Amino acid sequence: MGKRILVLQGHPDNSQRHFGHALADAYAAGAAKGGHEVRHIEVASLDFPLLRSEREWEQGSLPAALADAQQTIKWAEHLVLFFPLWLGDMPASFKGFLEQVARPGFAFTGESTNPFMHKGLTGRSARVVVTMGMPAMVYRWYFRAHSVKSLERNILGFVGIAPVHETLIGRVGELTWEAAHQWLAKLEDLGHAGA
Questions:
Q1: What number is the average pLDDT over the span 13-32?
Q2: Virtual CA dihedral for 183, 187, 190, 195, nearest 10 degrees?
Q3: Is 152 helix (H, G, I), strand (E, B) or coil?
């Protein structure tokens, strides 16, 4: 029986296709062939403001443009997040999207004075696919993959999404045709397996 999979594209530029888009397409094609149901969210196509205060995050209304996105996250059993590494982290628009949708009452609920009592998105797994200009080994070992680890621990893990797996792809601007197609094939295989 197939999984319900959300392919979440976090590249902030949707004016042209990037390698991250091709990777997401390959994953989705493999997932469809594997019998999984796939839905997509492209963050760059959504219009929403950035949160500017804790009060707004806790008590403000979810922007109407994100209501469907939040319900799609709730629907999914497995989330696959794609984004390029920008200045050592995820793009600001993608972080802003995650801040908006991961609100109290949805991503977690609490009792009395402890808002972190119940993780609202347990029972879901994830894969984080990050493209970058530097070698992935340098990012993983020298920089300790700090932004990916922060995403896994402070956002995904915080709301109950586990396990989380990583696919880090370095030197994307220098990939040969053969290397690029090997990555696309790998993502298609991961999609087929629902992993």
A1: 96
A2: 120
A3: helix
Asked whether the predicted pLDDT for residue 5 surpasses 80, the reply is: yes
H-assigned helices in 44-89? 54-59, 67-75
Which is it for strands 108-111 and 4-9: parallel, antiparallel or unpaired? Answer: unpaired
Amino acid (1-letter code) at residue 128: V
Supply angle C-alpha 36, 42, 47, rounded to 5: 145
Say if CB 5 and CB 31 are below 8 A apart.
yes
Helix spans in 62-131 (H): 67-75, 92-101
pLDDT tens, residue by residue, 51-95: 999 999 888 999 999 999 999 999 999 999 999 999 989 999 999
Cα distance between residue 27 and residue 108, in whole Å: 29
pLDDT, tens digit, for every residue of 142-185?
888 888 999 999 999 989 999 999 999 999 999 999 999 999 99
In angstroms, rounded to a whole number, what is the distance separating the alpha carbons of residues 161 and 165? 11
Residue 7 β-bridge partners: 40, 80
Residue 24's H or E segment, with its range, is helix 19-33
pTM, two decimal places: 0.93
Helix segments in 110-176, DSSP class H: 136-141, 146-150
CA–CA gap between residue 188 and residue 169 (Å, rounded): 15
How far apart are the C-alpha atoms of 87 and 91, rounded to whole Å? 8
- How many CB atoms are closer than 10 A to CB 140? 15
